[in-house]
Amino acid sequence: LASAAEGATARLRASGGSFVRRIVRSAQLIRSLPAEAWIVLLIDFLNSYRSFGFRSVQYQYIVNEFGFSDVQAGSLLGVQSWLMVVFGMLGAMVVDACGVRRTAILALLVASVSRAMLTLGRSRNTLLIALVGLSPFGEAVLSTGIYTVALKKLTTPETRGLAFGLQYGIFNFSGALADLAADALRQRDVQLPSQLPFVGGQRWSGLRLHVLGTWIAVLAALLVCVLCLDDVALVPVDEGPSFSSSPPPVPPAELAALRRAATPAQRRQGHILVKLNRTTLASAAPPSTSLPSGRSPCAAARACIACVGRGARGAWASLAELLSLRAFWR
């Protein structure tokens, strides 16, 4: 019995020490994340509040604020859901072609207009334009995981699992805050001051106040994207495989120059942060079929169609590769 008790005590001490070591290691990995990764996580927090915030009240908002019946509201939300599926697939190709920053800014601009119409609008036509005309692009593109793509480019295989775990936790924490805000504001109607432009003197329900909060989250995400978000990626300092399955995001000559100019701190970390500006993207891209000035509009249109076709073929190849994985079907 004594030996069994000593063995149990030793195992407890070993497990406790292992737990402490895992905590210390996780803290070290968190500190090693670049500042750009925290910007992406902040945008993801705001994006989750926007998404969960409206999703939790959309049915009641349509029925109570715009006078739709239950059947009409269900039909409208069903059409919107199908459109979001279609635009979500198109949005994935837009991310590959235009990059995370430009796609996020474009989608957030559309989402800002859509959410403004939902917040300030009173007519059914305004609601239909916002939900069916604008929302599918703005909302679906932001839900295709573009920030996950950005986070993948900013992590190494060692830190990627922890970064994705942080992203998932932040995403759900923000959604929980949005649900709590919806419950807190649901029963609180307010009379707006008459000095406010456009909406002065109106009486707003708690639901409309909550939707206003989600609009503010969209505007905040747009501001952060414009001021702080860049198309950047980590590349290893030494010659060897890339940190992701895709090839290095810069041409070989430029990558070699960046590696030669790496600082001692970057060499200790083992990676370089590369900003993917337009020049870099253009030089890293395959030979372009763009036409010099002077060609006819028909030729330019054919070149544009060829570019879209290449993007569609690349997206289809990626989808076929995904469907061939056993883990996907499991």
TrEMBL record:
Pfam families: MFS_1 (PF07690). One of its GO terms (molecular function) is transmembrane transporter activity. The chain crosses the membrane at residues 79-97, 127-150, 207-229. It is found in: Cell membrane. Keywords: Cell membrane, Membrane, Transmembrane, Transmembrane helix, Transport. GO terms for cellular component: plasma membrane. It is a multi-pass membrane protein. InterPro entries: MFS, MFS_trans_sf, MFS_Transporters. The keyword Transmembrane applies. This is Major facilitator superfamily (MFS) profile domain-containing protein. It comes from Calcidiscus leptoporus. The lineage of its organism: Eukaryota, Haptista, Haptophyta, Prymnesiophyceae, Coccolithales.
